[in-house]
Amino acid sequence: MTRPFFVRVKMIKDKLSRSCDVLRLFRENGFEAYIVGGTVRDLILGSHFTDVDIATSAQSKDIMDVFPGAKMVGNEPFCTLVIPQEGWTIEVTPFQGDTLFDDLSRRDFTINAMAINFVGELVDPFGGLQDITKRIIRFTGSPGDRIKEDPIRCIRLFRFASTLKGFSIDGPSMEEAKESLPLFENIPPERVGKEVYKVLRGSPFRFLELLHDTGFLAPVLPQIYALKNVPQDPYLHPEGDVYEHTRLCIKNAEILTNRIDVRAAALFHDIAKPNTIKEEEGRIRFIGHEKDGGKLAKEIMTRWAWPSYFVRSVAAMVRWHMVPLISSAPRRIPKLYMQYGRSWLDGLFLLSYIDITSSNGDYTNWMENREIALSCVFKFSGKRKLISGRDVMDILNIEQGPEVGRILSTIYELMARGKIKSRDDALNYLKHMIKYK
Fold this sequence. Notes:
CATH topology of the largest domain: Hypothetical protein af1432
CATH class of the largest domain: Mainly Alpha
Largest sheet: 7 strands, mixed
Strand content: 5-15%
């Protein structure tokens, strides 16, 4: 939920006040210290920021002496000292080089190569403020040197162009990124995943287009690149191959929702189609692509080191994204509601709506199944379960196993349809099963 404007302003003022106290303490101990990087950029843009970055002439040992409670992350000489605050952190790093200028000159982009001292004076040796004014993203100094230092900066270039609204990439930086494609090898997957995860809050569609146009799609998102030229049933998918469908899904997801789990699921929902394609009676089919896709999506997101709760949610959406689209869904929907909850189920239906909007636009089954899903909300929300698996086993005298789950799913479906309204109704249903067993 977005916080009210005055609350966000107060949070920013509190963070700046505390950060300036840290700068003063360094100064009193004989060290230079500045707020640097993305924090400065976001302050100029008036954007929300979480943590605060500080660069200092102090070395790691000196920082620990000034702030005994700081925690070291990483190893010398590229370590960061984290000073915990209430719900956020101040991250302190020694200058990369001998001076602040050396440190800023090694930062990726000019808009990230600025600093502010404890009295609020801006240090901007590379024209970052002017580039923010012009809405331009360009490498600091030589684009080739910055990329050779760390090739992931090409992906960061595309990520910033996709998350900073109205910004574009300057010509020399774009051309150097294209020329640097051969350097993009052996990049740890978690570093790639970190950039993709941040893109989900911006414009994943623009990010996808930039990867495609520069040749980076195959090395960054190989499973998405593999969707190109995979044919589909022209009646169900008049938009074209699986890649074009996924591209439209990303575009529509960006338009329709800010939920990053739905956006991620839109990216992954058809990644198993190349492995499951079959032609039966003249029709192209993808039997089981949702099940295989859920597993593959989970593997990718796990390699990317995405949060485990997020991985589970997105993988489950991919696994079950066909449920709102099929006529046999009413039996499954109540069970999914009980397993994953209302918010997740709403996300699943939103994903499927995006899927249909990006294909033939036939919402018939979706609308019928959405009514079932909404009835689950009204009938199950805030209520104690009418019946449990133990009730089923005791009344029917059966052992724990799949049959218990199937019976519970049937009861949940009848509850959603209004045919079972109380615990007595549910128990009577089980007793009726004994009679006709």
